[in-house]
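Board notes (copied after class):
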Amino acid sequence: MRVIAGKFRSRRLTAPPGAETRPTSDRLRETLFNVVASSTPGSAWLDLFAGTGAIGIEALSRGARAVCFVESSRRAARTLRANLESLGIESGFELIERDVSAALRQLDARAAVFDFCYLDPPYRRMGDYDKTLSFLAESNLIAPTGLVIAEHDKHFDPGEKFGRLVRRRKLRQGDAVLSFYAREQGDFG
């Protein structure tokens, strides 16, 4: 696993041993960032179920101003920290080691706002999609023109609509799918 482009291009990232963490493939990350490339510089990202931190680190590499990583697994959070340290990333990020639901409530209470939110719950925990997308739809965590991107298995569809969030696009690559959600009045190009 490596950083695809930007400041840390081609630098390696590590993943914790075992099957608990399933990192987003290099190819899928490249597809994602090809879609959002023009909006990434200066943006703020929320990387939920962050695992190794590959999505948020890619965003920082490509000029994002800030990334908030949320990861409840101690082993994954340790690996994420090691990845940040190995790249010399000392600022522009926050790591919240809590359950996603608790972290979202905490961020909402302090009126945090993000341009992008990426979520990739463990595939076996399908209920986390509905719970997380529903919370994001009702909160003010996502900027009015922001995007929520859900990575999911091709055999599972999280849904078309969650409150004010509506799916605008679906991209499939191998066994994985990216679903892009925006507010109903939001514009997605």
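Comment from the instructor: The two ends are 29 Å apart (CA to CA). The CA atoms of residues 1 and 13 lie 6 Å apart.
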